Backbone:
């Protein structure tokens, strides 16, 4: 026979208060969802391709402007920079949307509101778990509810109140590691984009120096010299404009990443406060423990 909690899970309402399937941006459109605030494997690359195509489609309306020329006529490297920047932008957009979903769990009221003196014991933990499973469709998909589920399940099964604080602390450390690892790809992109800019600089300078050598060896009439020098200045434009594009893109992405990272840190702090107030602060001994 299954436990009471298993039966509650099975008979949970079809539209609980907090639903991962209805809230997560990737799940809503049928893509595989990443864990917590991490993007999944499909939405980000597909979105990056769409952003890149859209960006160059927009530039086609301004193809004679200096801005458009920087991105379209300065070798293949600006195209790669735009694609990698779009990849980073998609990661941040998805993380921002998924963080907003995770924050909804902070509004859950799992403890009985009509009992101001309610305390958590190994016996009452089962009732709170029942409320959790009827309020959230799958607690494992939310950082906060996963902590609560782990702590209360431990309290109900092991019946050692002293272990609850340790379980919550361990879960908090694991969550911090998961959130930090979700930035691995974007940190790599922020490193790669300026490197591509410097590669573009080297490429442009090599073109300019090669053209300048040809100018000196074939110097003749002034008109011919002027025409040859045009190729030299074109190579210099490729060199410095590619670096400019890369550095500006990397700076903007890095600043945006820091903002979202700070919001995630604040969310994790609020999760700790929630557990401290509603779990740790409600613990009471109900039986004599060895």
Residues:
């Amino acid at each position: 026979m299954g436990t009471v909690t298993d039966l509650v899970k099975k008979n949970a309402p079809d539209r609980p208060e907090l639903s991962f399937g209805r809230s997560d941006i990737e799940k809503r459109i049928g893509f595989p969802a990443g864990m917590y605030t991490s993007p999944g494997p499909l939405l980000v690359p597909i979105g990056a391709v769409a952003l890149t195509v859209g960006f160059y489609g927009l530039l086609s309306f301004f193809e004679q402007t200096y801005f458009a020329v920087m991105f379209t006529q300065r070798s293949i490297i600006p195209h790669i920079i735009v694609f990698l920047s779009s990849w980073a932008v998609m990661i941040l957009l998805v993380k921002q949307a998924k963080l907003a979903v995770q924050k909804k769990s902070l509004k859950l009221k799992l403890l009985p509101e009509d009992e101001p003196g309610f305390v958590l014991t190994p016996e009452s933990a089962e009732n709170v778990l029942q409320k959790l499973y009827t309020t959230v469709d799958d607690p494992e998909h939310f950082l906060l509810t996963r902590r609560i589920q782990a702590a209360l399940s431990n309290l109900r099964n092991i019946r050692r109140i002293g272990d609850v604080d340790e379980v919550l602390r361990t879960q908090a450390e694991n969550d911090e590691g998961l959130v930090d690892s979700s930035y691995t790809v974007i940190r790599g992109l922020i490193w790669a984009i300026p490197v591509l800019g410097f590669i573009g600089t080297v490429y442009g300078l090599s073109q300019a120096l090669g053209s300048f050598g040809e100018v000196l060896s074939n110097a003749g009439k002034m008109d011919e010299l002027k025409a040859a020098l045009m190729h030299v200045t074109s190579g210099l434009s490729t060199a410095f404009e590619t670096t400019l594009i890369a550095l500006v893109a990397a700076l903007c992405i890095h600043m945006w990443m820091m903002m979202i990272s700070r919001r995630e840190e604040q969310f994790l702090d609020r999760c700790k406060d929630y557990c401290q107030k509603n779990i740790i602060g409600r613990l009471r001994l109900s039986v004599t423990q060895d």
User: Anything to note?
Assistant: The two ends are 29 Å apart (CA to CA). The chain has a mean pLDDT of 84. The chain has one domain: 4-282.
